């Protein structure tokens, strides 16, 4: 091996190698595989495109660009790769999306969270909204009138 460098995104290693017999040089790229175990038990490779597709539905009608979604998918992939495991449940991917999506758009976050946190009632939405308000230091409209 002549040289080894981490890629710009930090997800792969680029190695410059030299053949010991002929002296020819070539480059290899090494990446760690990351597989997702779906609810059905089927395993498939992690896909940023699937993250984007799932989040795009929650972002319908919101001021979120394709570039925003690409950055979110990259953040999610970096987060799940940092866990160091090679297999994750699909639900874990959904939960990893929540933080970056909350930072991107709170309405889309509530839409997405209602599915991945299995909201069952209005109280679940109220609790999530109260948590968002607490993070912003704002009070609810009802308490502002008092």
From TrEMBL:
<dbReference type="InterPro" id="IPR055173">
    <property type="entry name" value="NrdR-like_N"/>
</dbReference>
<dbReference type="GO" id="GO:0008270">
    <property type="term" value="F:zinc ion binding"/>
</dbReference>
<dbReference type="Pfam" id="PF03477">
    <property type="entry name" value="ATP-cone"/>
</dbReference>
<dbReference type="Pfam" id="PF22811">
    <property type="entry name" value="Zn_ribbon_NrdR"/>
</dbReference>
<keyword id="KW-0547">Nucleotide-binding</keyword>
<keyword id="KW-0805">Transcription regulation</keyword>
<dbReference type="InterPro" id="IPR005144">
    <property type="entry name" value="ATP-cone_dom"/>
</dbReference>
<protein>
    <recommendedName>
        <fullName>Transcriptional repressor NrdR</fullName>
    </recommendedName>
</protein>
<keyword id="KW-0238">DNA-binding</keyword>
<dbReference type="GO" id="GO:0003677">
    <property type="term" value="F:DNA binding"/>
</dbReference>
<comment type="function">
    <text>Negatively regulates transcription of bacterial ribonucleotide reductase nrd genes and operons by binding to NrdR-boxes.</text>
</comment>
<keyword id="KW-0479">Metal-binding</keyword>
<keyword id="KW-0678">Repressor</keyword>
<dbReference type="InterPro" id="IPR003796">
    <property type="entry name" value="RNR_NrdR-like"/>
</dbReference>
<dbReference type="GO" id="GO:0005524">
    <property type="term" value="F:ATP binding"/>
</dbReference>
<keyword id="KW-0804">Transcription</keyword>
<comment type="similarity">
    <text>Belongs to the NrdR family.</text>
</comment>
<keyword id="KW-0067">ATP-binding</keyword>
<dbReference type="GO" id="GO:0045892">
    <property type="term" value="P:negative regulation of DNA-templated transcription"/>
</dbReference>
<feature type="domain" description="ATP-cone">
    <location>
        <begin position="34"/>
        <end position="124"/>
    </location>
</feature>
